[in-house]
């Protein structure tokens, strides 16, 4: 597809159930592509290429370009638009259930770079699905609801601090990049959007023996975020255990750092261990 030219399938009616808000602002698209900084040996994976607004600016600059698209009505058009590109590969299916190991195994290359103007209704489960592939991912650039980017980047004590930020920051460095107004899309969404870069840590700076338990404890804590940690976590830990983890039982969950939650998780796991057999 020639850059800047309307795709041949511009008649496609955006579908709400697939979260289709297509990017149309060329300045914003350029800004996103510059932030991604595609390289000629990249294995680039785009989730939800839609009408190809971002895809067409990446495909010629990378080694291999794979796209994962759920709306089967868009697939024939993507095939036609990128028919001359030997490095372009379509995976038809649900990005939430997709096995991302397939892509490096089909196309070669070690680590994927992931991009996407994501359907907002699936962004949180999709982020959790993707971080299970953190060793195969070099970085991720996503358009998300601004409020979700705030939650991803929030530090301890901030209003948006909670489970999403804590769990993603366990695996990734989070860099909010810039805001995108509703006018950049067709149809315009009702909320502001923002671009975020997520870079999986090469070595995890904070660790716990069991991330599922960490996730459970953090979820329990923030289900009752207005309560003290003592009350919010009373089914999990007593005051002595909280204090051992460096957490004052009087504070609210939003005052507890990732490192403290990780320490508490390991202490809870150690306490739950069955007594060694004599
Ligand atoms: N990248 C295009 C753009 O920026 O104009 C389209 C972005 S639109 C917000 C979201 C895209 O994700 C649509 O193409 C939609 O069909 C696709 N999509 C929605 N749910 C999906 C899923 N579960 N798996 C893969 N693609 C999905």
UniProtKB/TrEMBL annotation:
Listed EC numbers: 2.1.1.182
Keyword check for S-adenosyl-L-methionine: yes
Location in or out of the cell: Cytoplasm
GO MF term set: 16S rRNA (adenine(1518)-N(6)/adenine(1519)-N(6))-dimethyltransferase activity; RNA binding
Entry keyword set: Cytoplasm, Methyltransferase, RNA-binding, rRNA processing, S-adenosyl-L-methionine, Transferase
General function of this protein: Specifically dimethylates two adjacent adenosines (A1518 and A1519) in the loop of a conserved hairpin near the 3'-end of 16S rRNA in the 30S particle. May play a critical role in biogenesis of 30S subunits.
NCBIfam families: ksgA (TIGR00755)
Protein known as: Ribosomal RNA small subunit methyltransferase A
Upper classification of the organism: Bacteria, Pseudomonadati, Pseudomonadota, Gammaproteobacteria, Pseudomonadales
């Amino acid at each position: 597809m020639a850059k800047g030219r309307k795709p041949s399938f511009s008649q496609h009616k955006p579908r709400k159930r697939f979260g289709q808000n297509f990017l149309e602002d060329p300045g914003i698209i350029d800004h996103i592509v510059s932030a991604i900084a595609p390289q000629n040996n990249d294995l680039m994976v785009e989730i939800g290429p839609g009408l190809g607004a971002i895809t067409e600016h990446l495909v010629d600059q990378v080694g291999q370009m794979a796209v994962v698209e759920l709306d089967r009505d868009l697939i024939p058009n993507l095939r036609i638009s990128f028919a001359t590109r030997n490095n372009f590969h379509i995976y038809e299916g649900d990005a939430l259930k997709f096995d991302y190991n397939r892509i490096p195994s089909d196309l070669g290359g070690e680590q994927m770079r992931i991009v996407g103007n994501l359907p907002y209704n699936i962004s949180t489960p999709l982020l959790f699905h993707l971080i299970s592939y953190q060793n195969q991912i070099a970085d991720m650039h996503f358009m998300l609801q601004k409020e979700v980017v705030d939650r991803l980047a929030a530090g301890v004590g901030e209003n948006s601090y909670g489970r999403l930020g804590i769990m993603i920051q366990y695996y990734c460095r989070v860099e909010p990049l810039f805001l995108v107004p509703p006018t950049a899309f067709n149809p315009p969404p009702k909320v502001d959007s923002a671009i975020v870069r997520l870079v999986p840590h090469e070595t995890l700076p904070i660790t716990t023996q069991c991330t599922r338990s960490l996730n459970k404890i953090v979820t329990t804590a923030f289900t009752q975020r207005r309560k003290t940690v003592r009350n919010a976590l009373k089914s999990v830990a007593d005051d002595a255990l909280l204090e051992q983890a460096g957490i004052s039982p009087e504070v609210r969950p939003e005052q507890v750092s990732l490192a403290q939650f990780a320490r508490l998780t390991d202490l809870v796991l150690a306490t739950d261990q069955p007594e060694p057999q004599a």
